[in-house]
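note to self — DONT lose this again. spent like an hour looking for the file last time. sequence + predicted structure for the chain T wanted, 173 res
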Amino acid sequence: MNILSELKLRNLSINECSKKTGIPYGALYPLIHGQKNLEKCEYATLKKLADFFDCDIEDLFDTQEDFSVFWEDEKTADVTVTENKAYVKRYSTNPAKQIFSSDSISLFELGEILKWRCWDEHRENIEKYLFKLGLTEFNPYKICRKTHGVMFQDKIWFMYKGENLTWSDVKCR
């Protein structure tokens, strides 16, 4: 989550956020402007921000998660996301069932692939679709995390760690 963007969307200043959360302005300003890393915050500060933005603490962090790719109930790939790259372990080379062309891709390429699994960023009323997912900005990682990357056109979908789903749980047909 980009905290500064969230504040702008809500027409709030850092000062107002400070007053409403009880987080001192001097502590909040460097967080919002990226001068201090959220990972170094105390739990109490993260909890106050999450409560203020009505989200989970994990949602405050812009992290990309590892996931598995499926064609219906057949696992076709595992994707491991690191700080610089995404590594793909492919179990199928069938082009209809596979969305990755190599075993290592940049995070930019991964983002573009995930973007293909989302609605058009400039779609009319995109804010309504994002709102239904609990999002305030177009972020392909977060959209795919919520929608599992499901599309009407094919049977590819994503499952994230800790989930126990099948194709019948996520399909949109």
